[in-house]
Amino acid sequence: MGGYMRLADARTAPAANAANAAGGDAPPSAAGTAARLRDHLVQRYTALHGRLARRLGCADLASEGLHGAWLRLARPVAGEVANADAYVFRMACHLAIDALRAQPSSVSLDDPEAGCPDLCDAAPGPLASAEARSTLAALARAMEGLSRQQHAVLVALRVEGRSRDEVARWLGLSTRSIDTALRQALRHCAERLERSVACA
Fold it and tell me: Where is the RNA polymerase sigma factor 70 region 4 type domain (predicted)?
């Protein structure tokens, strides 16, 4: 917004000086009309943007249309504009629609160069989430019968990703004891999970 104001001030100052020098009744030039419309766009930007966003259903598209109108109004405007608000709004609306039409209507999923992040949702769906919760619940039930040592070894090695030596030092055991505890814990969990599947 600040950039628009600076550009509009720089654009309208020469036109206003020229009009004052020629007299208040002098007809506006094409360049002066364009400068007046750019100044109007700046002054009414918020209202125009809101109205355009409601018409187009997209705030980003409204911003793009108004930016396009700002650039277009750098060129002289032929004829006199009676309603600056309606003129700028129509121009921005048409430019936004043109920009929308210029975008590709479809993307080929077979094209490795095509970037389509919006088409691929990495988040798990409802079914995957339900299955994950069910698996975790079954695993938690399977771990209920483990000793404290077996539970600590299983979690440290397979969940936290610690090394055998680190876990052995932490629990004050030999690495051979760690291996034995892990083997017993895995066997216990596997048997409990098999029983739960057989009963399902």
Answer: 137-189
